[in-house]
Model the fold of this input.
Amino acid sequence: MKKYFQFEELGTNYRSEIIGGLTTFLAMAYILIVNPMILSLDGIEGLPDSMHMDKGAVFTATALAAGLGSILMGVLAKYPIALAPGMGLNAFFAFTVVLDFGISWQIALTGVFVAGVIFILLSLTGIRETIINAIPTELKYAVGAGIGLFITFVGLQNSKIIVSDPSVIVGLGDLADPNILLTIFGLVITVIMMVKGVKGGIFYGMLITAIVGMIFSLVPLPSGIVSSIPDVSPTFGAALDPIFNDPTSLLTTQFLVVVLTFLFVNFFDTAGTLISVANQAGLMKGNKLPRAGKALLADAIATTAGAVAGTSTTTSYVESTAGVAAGARSGFAAVVTGVLMLLALFFYPILSVVTSYVTAPALIIVGVLMVSALGNIEWKKFEVAVPTFFVIIAMPLTYSIATGIAIGFLFYPITMIVAGRIKEIHPIMYGLWVIFLCYFIFL
Done:
């Protein structure tokens, strides 16, 4: 096992990998609760029952997709990167495709399935890997730093330290709120342990925060320990029904837009996450991502299988950086996370203690670690500074990793050509420029 996951080469051990995998699980466990709420359009009244997906079935599908995807990533690609249905993509699925477009959730799942199959083909041909390796070093650093700012913003928002403000868009929340104080407490504890060099400090920070939260009744005590697995049959296989029973329902412009959007966002969300986590873990070699093809294949298979089970697009999770910060370096950590996702099917009540106020300190600290990539960017060269800056700043401001990548990549060929560095531009970057331009114009 140690030899397969290259423990000696990576300077890791079982303890570090288990703690790293557990930390990643705790940092992303919220998806098991949030995803069913979003996909079922929970809380939106006046809709016919047919528009609401079964929450129990979506919970089971979410855990199965996350478990399968994370284990595949760990075993095939040997990266400490966990997968699960992606935030943002699930919101697009529920609120745009189903609620706005009026497309049934069954056909929406078909869109995810078709996108997944296309991803599998692209991964097997090596096209996705070629594109990722063609991205310039500076932009790869920018993607990592941008995701760092993005994930910190998510942590600040989830804990309500930063809130919406109609006057200035965002502002400081009510720091007298006991829940916010719990997050600040967890942040201080985590910072102290990180400064002291405590291995797994992020995980221990979340654990202490959860315990303190329960003591002060800010975190709900679990109603139980073990529960039965919710029935997945209401959603299982629904993605395949339109293909075999009503294929003409898929021959619409809206369905094409749905598939293209899932393709675009998942491709570059995954690419950005792979690059940023690999950079943080020190796994990049010569500006290339080893075994990128296998990582992308794991992601594609998980998306396809997740759609069949009954959930939106499965993608690599930026919360994996929390596990890396806690010591994870190999795919064994991803396997640990995947196994925990599957075990969560039986221990749903316990997940109630993993609130956004508990996980927020971890996300904030991970952002601190990831922006260190800024030091590797040649800021004095304006042709490099402009596109990298736009990648970094656009991610948190647009709340989208893919959009941040798109904006920066649109500027890169322009600034490099004007600076007389046209020979340094990989031909693929021109193709991406056209794709990103079309994305903004048509999608």
Summary: Residues 7-442 form one domain. The longest strand covers residues 162-165. Residues 236 and 309 are 4 Å apart (CA to CA). The mean pLDDT is 88.
